[in-house]
Design a protein that fits this description.
Blueprint: H1 7-22, H2 26-31, H3 38-62, H4 67-70, H5 76-88, H6 104-132, H7 141-144, H8 148-164, H9 175-195, E1 198-199, E2 206-207
Antiparallel strand pairs: 1-2
Helix pairs in contact: 1-9, 3-5, 3-6, 6-8, 6-9
């Protein structure tokens, strides 16, 4: 467990409600449903691909002064999502309007959200393997292709890096608060995007449309 006053503890406390809200988005609720349909799954992949493919390069560019953080945005997630869409023969969606990443603090907050999702993604991956039979290389590369130990190692590297960053090296005294604010905003951005995926109440199928906050 992180120390009570650590950056990670502040991030966890400051994003708890935003994290809880995104989990209630209908499309994400459907993602872990026992009767999830293939069409629903593919459309969710399309939206994830649009988000990660266009947001991650922006974050990497903003974090160029922190090579260890930028290295976590190496294109692996977009590649795995593109592989899944290719397996299903599904086209990519256009990019959504992206949030502005004004500085290092903003990009670190967004990276915290993205890397944290990899831990939860392992649980989703096990469900998808049972429910739809997807596997790495066969429609399940994004959710099933990241080894649990690798996901945990990436998370540990990120949290260690966050704790090691000295506030004195940054121009603003509210650096930590801006990381938390950005993480909270990133959760909100993802939530708004996923709430725009329309779930038809009579069939449970997801209607495809470009994501936008």
């Amino acid at each position: 467990m992180p120390e009570p006053n650590s950056r990670v503890a502040q991030l966890r406390a400051g994003t708890r409600s935003a994290h809880a809200r995104i989990e209630t988005a209908p499309a994400l609720v459907r993602l872990v449903a026992d009767d999830l349909g293939r069409n629903e799954y593919v459309v969710i992949l399309q939206h994830l691909q649009a988000l990660h493919t266009h947001l991650e390069p922006v974050l990497a560019a903003t974090l160029e002064t922190l090579p260890e953080a930028a290295a976590m945005l190496d294109g692996d997630r977009p590649r795995r999502l593109a592989e899944d869409l290719a397996w299903f023969g599904a086209p990519a969606l256009p990019p959504p309007p992206l949030p502005e990443m004004a500085d290092t603090a903003a990009a670190l907050g967004a990276l915290y959200v993205i890397e944290g999702s990899g831990l939860g993604g392992r649980v989703i991956g096990r469900h998808l393997a049972r429910c739809l039979g997807v596997t790495p290389g066969k429609g399940g590369s994004f959710f099933c292709g990241l080894d649990a130990e690798v996901a945990r190692s990436r998370w540990d590297r990120l949290t260690a890096m966050l704790e090691a960053l000295p506030v004195e090296d940054n121009a603003s005294a509210d650096f930590d608060a801006r990381i938390v604010a950005s993480a909270r905003d990133t959760f909100g951005f993802f939530e708004r995007c996923f709430r725009r995926i329309e779930v038809a109440p009579d069939s449970g199928h997801v209607m495809a449309e470009a994501v936008a906050p």
